[in-house]
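FIELD: query
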Amino acid sequence: MRAREGNANMGMRAAAGIGVALCFVTRATLAKPAGERFGERGQLAIDQSFSMMASYDSSKSPSLEGLTRSNLRLAPTVSWFVLPQFAVLLGATVTASRSSSDEISDLGGHAALGGRTGLGYAVPLAEHFSFWPHASAGLTNYWFDSGDQPSAGPDSMLDLGVGVAAPVLWHPAPHFFLGLGPAAFAHYSGPRLGSLKHGFTALGVTSAVGGYFSL
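FIELD: result
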């Protein structure tokens, strides 16, 4: 009987200790000075997303032997918290690519310019972490250059992209964050808005680095 009472007392002490620890963590997370916690009303968060891609070409055409491709993609995003934890996203996309092979020095490439908008919601997880799910849609115009090859397609094309991402942000220092999490995107393309067709759907991991400040 005494052993059972002792175990019960130990369990109550452990539960009380966990409760006190959770209270301290919650107070440390929520008691930051105004403008310090990510997601407060009136904040502007600016981040740059990065992507890592690998490609494989199984073509046996001699002109594609030794194929190399260079890509540049910039996609800065500004998030404005119009309400506590709730933000409106505005972003731009600039891309450029160029390809060559052992046989052909210039296989052409493309340049693109676009914009996007969306919504996001910041969820504080702990003192140095937050959850940042957001969704966006954007329209991009591509201009193609065939290089040393005869043109075999349109000179320009529209691309509509719709996507969601859910990164966990780490705040190692005030007003700064690094993020990593899953993402999914669907793309529709065509010469005009009325003729867009589904191109592909992509699943992967997205990352972000950025900062935030109060207006």
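FIELD: remark
The chain has one helix and twelve strands.
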